[in-house]
Every structure is written in C-alpha cells, then in structure tokens.
What does this fold into?
Amino acid sequence: MKYGYFDQTNREYVIDRIDVPVSWTNYIGVKDMCGVFNHTAGGYLFYKSPEFHRVTRFRPNGVPMDRPGHYVYVRDDDTGDYWTLSWQPVGKSLDSAKYICRHGLSYIKYQCEYSGIWGEETLFIPLEDPAEIWDVKLRNHSDRKRRLSVFGYAEFSFHRIQSDNQNFQMSLYCAGSSFQDGVIETDLFYEAGGYQYFTADGGSDDSQYFDCLRDVFIGAYRTETNPIAVERGFCSGSSELGGNHCGALRRVVELEPGQEKRLIFLLGEGNRQAGKEMRSKYCAPGFSQADSAFKALGNFWNEKLEKLQISTPHDGMNAMINTWTLYQAEINVMFSRFASFIEVGGRTGLGYRDTSQDAMMVPHSNPKKSRSRLVELLKGLTSDGYGLHLFSPEWFEKQTEAAFKSPTVVPRPQKSDLIHGLNDACADDALWLIPSIVEFIRETGELSFAEEKFPYADTFDPETGGGTSETVFDHMKKILDFSAREIGPHGICKGLRADWNDCLNLGGGESAMVSFLHHWALVHFCALGRRLGKDISKYEGMMVKVRESCERELWNGSWYTRGFTSSGRAIGSPENKEGKVHMESNTWAVLSGAASPEHGKSAMDAVDEFLYTPYGLKLCDPAFSEPDDEVGFVTRVYKGLKENAAIFSHPNPWAWAAETMLGRGDRAMKFYDALCPYNQNDQIEVRKAEPYMYCQFVVGPDHSAFGRAHHPFMTGSAGWSYFAATRFMLGLRPDFDNLIVDPCIPSSWPSFNVRRVWRDAVYDITVENPKGVSKGVVECKVNGEPVKCNSKSAEIPVQSPGTKNHVTVVMG
Ligand code: NOJ
It folds into this structure.
C-alpha cells in the first residue's frame, strides 16, 4: 500500500493519500530557526534551541496525534462551513475533500481542494531572517463569488520546555500578549529579549481581526478541530498579561469565480518592531521578497546537492543519494539529534559520538558546519582523552552575562560539575572524532587544521575563555592513548559505560567494537601523520598491537566475538545461546582493516546467514530474553525492538562498506536494498513510517510488528548510508592529494556516472563495466590522459580550482 511518490524533478515527496498511519515529518529552516512539522501541519518551531527557546508549543506523544501546529483555517462566510488547508486539525472527510502534502527541501506545501476552493499553505524560513513565512494561496474553482474568512493560528510556548510543561504557578503569570499596529507580540517578561510576534499582510485594527489568547480563540471544551472563533467567523480581540498565548489573525478574502488571491502570515523571533520590519520586507505588494527568499532556499540546497550527483541503474539509490539521504544527513548536522517528535527538547546539546559521526558525512556539502562541529568536539574532549558524552558547546565559550533569570530558584551547576568522570565515559565516543577530522582534511585540503590549538574541556577557564591548549594533532594522540590505556585482561578495549551500542554496558568488560574502532582511528591518524611528515612510529606500533590482539582474542573460528563481560564470559560467540552473532564486531573487523581477508569473508558470511532480513540486517541474533546486567540494558529490551535484535539502521551501512572491502558488490547491494526506504514506498502497511527517510530502527522478526520503522530523520543512518554508498559502493574517496576511484558495484551494472565537485573543480566521471565485474579498475583517464591506476583503484590528482574535468574509468 502506498500513500505518495517521489517527485524527482521538484525534489519533493508528495503525499497524495493524506491519512498516512503515523506522522510523516519534515524540517524547515537551515540556520537558527527551525520547525519540525508533519503532513498535516502539526509540529513546532524553535529558535537555536528546542529546549530553551521553543517558539511554539507541541503536545508530544498525545492524542489527537501531534498537535498543535501552524494552521490555516478557511471559513465560507455564506454557509458557515470551515476547514483547514492541511487535513488536520479540522479533518474533513476524505470523500469530500482532497489533500496533498509536498515535503520539499526545508519547506512544506499543504494543498487542499474542498467545496470549490483550492488552497495552499507553504511553510518556510528565509535563509537570512528568523521568521517563518506562511505563504497562502486561495483560488475559487466554483462558479459563484465566495466570501471567506481565513485564520492563521499557532500556539506560543514559554520558551523553556521545563517552564512549558511544569511549574505553571510561575510561567502562566510571567508572559503577556498584546496587539498593536497589526502585530501580535508575546512578551516573556522574565527573559531579557524574550519576544515573539505574529503578523500578516493587510492588517486591521478591528477587534474581530485578532486573538492573542489561546483559550479565547479555541473556546472552552473545544480543541483545534473546532475553535469557537472559526466557527463563529471572527476573533474577539483578546489579549492579557499572563495566560496562554497564541497568534490568531483573521483575514477576509473575497474571490470571484476563477480568481486567485495570496496572503502571507509571519511568525517570528523578536518584538513588535521586528515583526513590522519583517512584514514590510516580506509582505510588500507583489510579495517579491518572499518569492526571492523561497528561490534562495532552493539555490541553497541545489548548491549542496550539486557537489555530488549520481546516475546509476538503481532509481532508488539515485533518488536517495541525490536528494533525500544527503538532506537527512545535513539536518542532523544542523540541529543535532534532539529536535523531532521523539526527542522533543528534553535534552539538547551535542552527543559526542553522534556529532562526531554526523560531521564526517557532509564536509563536501557543508564544510563550514562540519568544521565548527569538529572544533566544538575538540573543546569537549578531556585531557585524559575521553569525550564528554553529552555537552553544550556554550560551556566552552567565554562566559557572558546570563540573560535568563528563572522565575523560581533553580540551582545552577558549577562548571566543574559538568565534566563527568571515567565512570560515565563511553569507550567509543572520542575515537569517532579522529576519522572525522581526517576526512575533513581530505575533503578540504586544509592540512593546517591539524596544527590549530584548542583547550581541553577540563582545563577551560570560562572567565578568560582560555585553558591549556594543544594542537588538533595532539588531541588525536590523547584519544588514541586513552584507548590504548583502557584495556581489559584480553588486551581488548574496555566497554566502559557503553560503546556505540548504548545498551551494551560492559563496564570493565571488553568491547571488540571499540578495539576495531581504535584500529580504524589509528589507520586514519597514521595516514595524516605521514602526510604531515610527523613521527608516528609509536602509533604504527600501537596499530600492529591492536590488530594482533583482535585477531588473537576475537576471532572465534567462525566470526568475530562481540566482547567479554567483566567476569570474562564471551559475548557474540558460538558458545552463546543468545546474542551469538553481532553486527558491530563483524562489520568493524573488516571495515577497520584489522581482519584478514579470509576471516573477514567468514565474518560477513555469518552476518548474511544470521542477521539478514528482507528489511535490513538485525543488530544481533538470537535476541536476548533473559535480563543479564553483566551484558547490559540490551537484555531488558523486548525482543526485536531497538538494540535487542531489531534492524538497527545505523550499522547497516557498515556492512555495505565491509562487503565492498571484500570485493562483493552484489552482496553489498543486497544489503543496501533491504534497508532502502525507497524500496518500501509501496509497503507502508508494514513500514508505517516515511519512505523518504531512514529511521533509527525497523522492528525485527522476533516481534509481532516485524518491518515497522521507528524514529525517522534524527539518526546517523542517513550519514552512514551516504558515506558507505558514495565512498565504498560507488567508490569515490577524496584523499590528501588525489581523488580515489575504487567502485564495488553489482556485477549486472553496465556503467554509472558521478558528478563530483572537489576542492572547487568539477569531475564528471563515467565508469564503464564491460566485463560485468564487481570490483577492479583497469583504466582511468582524466581529460583523455591516463592516470595512476592499479588493478584495484585509480588515483585522480587534484585538479585546479574552476576546471571541469572529464574522467573515464574502465572496470575489469
Ligand atoms: C542512539 C544513540 O543516539 C546513539 O548514540 C547510539 O549509538 C545508538 N542509539 C545505538 O545504541
């Protein structure tokens, strides 16, 4: 069963059957202001932080589903009938109304045809201004003149999620609203500069024009489905100091048959004056600034996407890589992982491991943000060499006068309390940063980044903004030394609080995943060290030792063991009844370069044999059923859910990459296809979630909901899918001085093309596969000239900025 389709030309996912089983979401905004909305305009807006600066309110995990939102109501003033341009909240019968939602790149269009009126609400945020534009169009398709009242409505929040959800004895009396000069202003009295506004073109001073009070607009014993103001046909001019506030504005629109009119509502950050300025800008006659802002947003995304475009025989891979997967990966980097309908602002900041991985995925399309994330992470590293698992970058910025005075006394922690100890360190966190830094340098060529100095989190002095600073290269050494030091009796890295798997809590036990990751980080670090001409002999030695320990202790004769508990029991090995085979150890054994080819092949065969399902690879098999605290929380999660043998999406691309390292392109594609959301577009009765987004996990076969996908958008799965598909399957890897071409594809592919922009030069690459192989490059020419090519891969030397280069590659 399907509910929509991929519109490749407009880069939109079009939901043309609107009653999708769960919320299908999208993000608007690319800088400081961001909105998360579903297919029926339910959702919320925030400025910089979803936890501390929530602009509009959201009632998560509730019924009716995912309310409130940013709604446009239309009322026929001749009949009293009313509806919304998004299907909900009024929810007209789908027998009489047609609704479409177009999820585009940082915008959403809600379209509706009902009772002879076509209407559209487009939500987007201009690149330059923290203001949300609601661009509304209405056209009369009937043969009679129509008199309509159009209401824009959103419910304001008290900024801080805590104030918004608890302690109403203060928050309800510290925020006020007022209407003047056509602008609704809410004032969070306790917060310096705490203002929001709602306004529209063509305002009026009439009291029927506005309501600032939610409960007056909605009415007692009513909901957003049937607000009294809409039912009655006008607002009542309400405002008050204290209470719950909303932006509600009513426009009167008359339409002759065939006539179309456009109006704009604006919801933004700042006070009345800011609202007036934005209104003059975006609502000037002809709305030309709104049009150019929308166009600029399109250009913003095109510029990113054009950095890498592919054309392969696989339509799904083309659609995902060319648009949706990069989009998802970018959104994760822009807003971190804590703004969605699942993470609704209770935690914010940066997760060390997640952010490190996210930053690695987009250095070509977002070098600025990748770099600033790397710097934030470097500052969140302790001088012991472990990262702060969850931290706010502001902790490591020079202290400024706090603007927020809580209305009740909430003790503020000392800075020193923010630096957690080894007990709370996750063994993998900081290791991810090393490849991310090296990949950033490979992409940008900015070798000098390695020599920049930053303080460590525990040495940082908030008063002066300084601290003991060392180079990026030194920070990397600290991380590698930490992992070399924190090993258990088998010489394998300790699992500590957790490794990548949040629910595997080995403590003093040992984690194969971390040792393999240590190896991977060492491979990257040594490559950089060699390029910089540094003495890296200590780390080359460390790498050999790690590899030897892994082969000696983790190869169990059939595949790679996942680790050891603190009492020395093996996990993920043939003698186990539950959790016998794990994804992380087997994929990372290969991906890290530590496994021998022979062992690597057997390990990945075990992955195929034990973990493959038609919806992707399970994290482990068989699922755990008995609580076992030496293994961790995973044993207390229901079978088939989350880390307990669900199809956890994030590690799936590790398997695609590992298979390409073994030269098995058909197997890599088999795994890619199983997880690919595009392939499930017509299986929504099973998948339920959006087919344009990877989800954190898909329910595994041990559970009755096998195949159902959960937690879209905010997951490292997109970044890793992008990384594995482009760098390993299509095989295009920037190196310090060369672009490496090393594809591993299905043997049935006759050819494919990639257009890659790298260091300001364009590479138009055509790869031919006349012999039907999966791997191997026998010839490569750049602008007709042969370049270095071994039987495995080719190396294209970096070309001058501004040049366009024609590259032909022959596999064989
Ligand atoms: C989600 C967390 O954000 C991530 O850090 C972790 O690696 C995965 N869950 C797996 O446990």
Observations:
- The chain has a mean pLDDT of 96.
- The pocket of 1-deoxynojirimycin is lined by residues 337, 351, 353-354, 500-503, 643 (CB under 6 Å).
- The first strand starts at residue 4 and ends at 7.
